[in-house]
Amino acid sequence: MSCGDPHETPCSEVLEAVYLYLDGEQDHNHHEKVRLHLDECAPCLRQYGLEQAVKSLVARCCGSDPAPVDLRDRVLVRIQQVRLEIEQVEYRAE
Asked: Which structural domain, as residue segments, surrounds residue 77?
């Protein structure tokens, strides 16, 4: 996904790091780059919001137990499929 605007940190790099960003698992420098990108890029911010919602839903449904690896993998695959579908719809709209 790309909004078509130039950014210091590319959209693809930001979207690949969304879960690390949400979990605070990045060093301060990379975390700040992602935050700045999200501040200026509406498409990535929307995707970040989707990822955040999914993470919150899984946390509520699974309680304090971590999600099983196979469930997490299936969810990540489905999220990637939805991303591709969104990109295809946006590309057709252009």
From this structure: 11-93
Domain presence at residue 45 = yes
Residue 5 sits at φ, ψ, to 5 deg, of: -95, 145
Q: Alpha carbon of 70 to those of 24, 61, 75, 89: distances in Å? A: 23, 16, 9, 29
Encoded tokens for 28: 């301060």
pLDDT average, residue stretch 58-69? 73
Q: How far is 27 from 21, CA to CA, in rounded Å?
A: 9
Contact at 8 Å (CB) between 10 and 2? yes
Global confidence as pTM: 0.53
